[in-house]
Design brief:
CATH superfamily: Alpha/Beta hydrolase fold, catalytic domain
Radius of gyration: 17 Å
CATH topology: Rossmann fold
Structural class: alpha/beta
Number of helices: 12
Number of strands: 8
CATH architecture: 3-Layer(aba) Sandwich
Order of helices and strands: EEEHEHHEHEHHHHHEHEHH
Strand order of the largest sheet: 1-2-4-3-5-6-7-8
């Protein structure tokens, strides 16, 4: 794994923690819930080898970034992008993310098209509202109950869940890191997925005015939503990596990085 230079800047909800490479074409990376910027440690090196400057941000309440004092929405998470770009003296950047981070990247592109050169949506939430909101209630009710249990059983349960999703493709050390990332959260555990399933990604995608790509993998549990997003915006190329799951960033880091670098190369 490759680690970048770490820093803080001030944002609307307190301190924002991020990590950044020193040079290259700026690419903001936004993680999925309930992880933080270290989700991308295995793609930093292949991105930099393609001339990309990865800038990975801990969204509010995740990792070492301060949490909001209210139940956040995707629009709140998106407010961390510009303060980080300003702190680094970057006028424009490509913005992308994975799962929850993809929704946040979309919102940043909508709000700041003058600062976003391109958008990478690594997973979309294109599904009927009834299904999306039903998933929100299911996830929220389950995650609101998550908390410390005797003997650290809550950590065992989280490890078991992530090990199931990995299906033998991720090392036990990395799965342990996933658990650590989740436990570092500075806000309530359920905030991230609640925000994600509350977000109307369909309306947002329709309104995106910057160049964009849809990045998915055939084994992702929300792959069908990526196909639906491409049908909604056929002008946005859909790149599908074979196989994998929700951990495609670690399962196929070179393919994931190459897909993004190829897209960035097409931008004016």
């Amino acid at each position: 794994m490759t680690y970048l230079r770490r820093a803080y800047t001030d944002g609307p909800f307190g301190q924002i923690h991020f990590q950044s490479a020193a040079e290259g074409v700026p690419l903001v990376l936004l993680h999925q819930a309930v992880m933080h910027s270290d989700q991308f440690t295995n793609v930093f090196a292949p991105l930099m080898a393609r001339g990309i400057r990865p800038i990975a941000i801990d969204m509010p309440g995740f990792g070492m970034s301060d949490a909001t004092q209210h139940v956040p929405m995707v629009a709140d998470y998106a407010q961390v992008v510009l303060p980080v770009l300003d702190a680094l003296g970057i006028a424009r950047a490509v913005v992308g993310g994975h799962h929850t981070g993809s929704l946040v990247a979309t919102e940043a592109a909508l709000r700041h098209p003058d600062r976003v050169r391109g958008l990478v949506m690594g997973g979309t939430m294109v599904m009927p509202d009834e299904e999306r909101l039903g998933m929100r209630e299911t996830f929220a009710e389950r995650e609101k109950k998550y908390g410390p249990l005797p003997g650290g059983q809550h950590m065992v349960e989280l490890f078991t869940t992530r090990e199931h999703f990995a299906a033998g493709t991720i090392s036990l050390a990395r799965i342990s890191d996933y658990v650590t990332q989740a436990l570092v959260s500075r806000g309530p555990y359920w905030f991230g997925h609640h925000a994600a399933f509350s977000y109307d990604h369909i309306s947002a995608i329709k309104a995106v005015a910057v160049p964009a790509m849809i990045l998915s993998n055939s084994g992702d549990m929300i792959h069908d939503a990526a196909v639906a997003a491409h049908a909604l915006r056929p002008d946005f190329p859909l790149v599908v990596i074979p196989g994998g799951g929700i951990d495609i960033v670690d399962q196929e880091p070179q393919a994931w990085a190459d897909a993004i670098a190829d897209f960035v190369a097409t931008l004016p």
